[in-house]
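Record passed on here:
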Amino acid sequence: MASSTALRELQRDLENKANDLSKLQKDIAKNHQVRKKYTIQLGENELVLKELELLMEDANVFKLIGPVLVKQDLAEARANVRKRIDYISAELKRLDATLQDLEDKQKSKQETVFKLQQKVQSFQAGKGKA
């Protein structure tokens, strides 16, 4: 009777750890999606900066604000794009650090789940022989 209680406890623990692992995997997938979005934005902003660098100092630059184009100083436009690139780069670094942490946790959880699965299997095999 005690052995079936221990087996149920092991199975419950295994289920909880597997759910935790599943949540981590979802977080990793979400991190990848956000990282992809920022990578695309970074590429777009770098292209905009290259285009702005090609302009003459007296060129007209307009910024879209809602449905209206507003004239903007070229130096200000370049500075804004550089700030945006810096921000996006910092976010990508933060996401990379978070991803590394999540992957380390995932590896640890996978090892824990594997060990629990082995315990359950060996417990069931021992019970089957008895």
